[in-house]
UniProtKB/TrEMBL annotation:
InterPro entries linked: UDP-glycosyltransferase, UDP_glucos_trans
Protein name, UniProt field: glucuronosyltransferase
Family: Belongs to the UDP-glycosyltransferase family.
Subcellular location: Membrane
Enzyme Commission number, as recorded: 2.4.1.17
Keywords: Glycosyltransferase, Membrane, Signal, Transferase, Transmembrane, Transmembrane helix
Pfam families in alphabetical order: UDPGT (PF00201)
SUPFAM superfamilies membership: UDP-Glycosyltransferase/glycogen phosphorylase
Reaction catalyzed: glucuronate acceptor + UDP-alpha-D-glucuronate = acceptor beta-D-glucuronoside + UDP + H(+)
């Protein structure tokens, strides 16, 4: 998980200027928390907080996150627009997904207070983001079948029809060589090896001829 206390100093100070917020900060006793952040009235630092409960609160207008799957699922279910600052792994994809669905913005210039303030203002004042976020949450809440209904339908199907040949994967009948494509991988390795051997032999031949010609010239 990405830790917010590891942000560079410029990013931390830029975030503080024009935003009233609750910040999950893992080191409430470090230099930033006890120094510059201590005098900010509109700031609450907490080592841990019930994120899902906060997202469900009616007063929450915007969520800034690195875009982990857990956070993305929670903000989507709660219908909260977000600014995502992806760092690694699946986070860039998650951020792009949120932006594609019009529920937030995928940005990484949090150290620039002017751009960050403009972005926060855009998401708070443009109702499109909140509308899209709430609509997505409503769609998830009113999905055609609940998980319980899906389970019951599949159990009923299995009890009525038994094992189905149409649903039986062909991989069951494969041996381990076919299943793991060992034959294809071996062929690829052999071909690549032959190519590398050919290239190496050609390079050695050219170098040996060049060295031989220079040797004859000096003799």
């Amino acid at each position: 998980m990405a830790k917010s206390y590891l942000l560079w100093p410029e990013a931390k100070t830029a975030i503080l200027k024009n935003i009233t917020f609750i910040w999950k900060y893992e080191r409430p006793d470090d230099e930033f928390a006890s120094g510059e952040a201590a005098g900010v009235e509109n700031l609450v630092l907490a080592k841990w907080m019930p994120q899902n409960d906060l997202l469900a609160h009616s007063s929450l207008s915007l969520f800034i996150t690195h875009g982990g799957m857990g956070s993305v699922q929670e903000l989507t279910l709660r219908g909260v627009p977000a600014i995502l600052v992806p760092i690694f792994a699946d986070q860039p994809r998650n951020a792009a997904m949120i932006e594609y669905n019009g529920m937030g913005k995928d940005k990484n210039y949090i150290a620039d207070d002017v751009k960050l303030s403009a972005l926060v203002k855009e998401l708070l004042e443009n109702e499109r983001y909140g509308t899209n976020a709430r609509r997505t949450a409503e769609m998830l809440a009113y999905k055609p079948f609940s998980s319980r209904e899906l389970l019951l339908k599949h159990v009923d199907f299995a009890a009525r029809f038994g094992p189905s040949r149409a649903l039986r994967p062909q991989s069951i009948d494969m041996n381990w060589i076919e299943y793991y494509n060992v034959d294809a991988i071996l062929v690829a390795i052999i071909v690549v090896s032959l190519i590398l051997i050919g290239i190496s032999s050609s390079v050695v031949l050219v170098i040996s001829r060049f060295v031989g010609q220079r040797k004859q010239k000096y003799e």
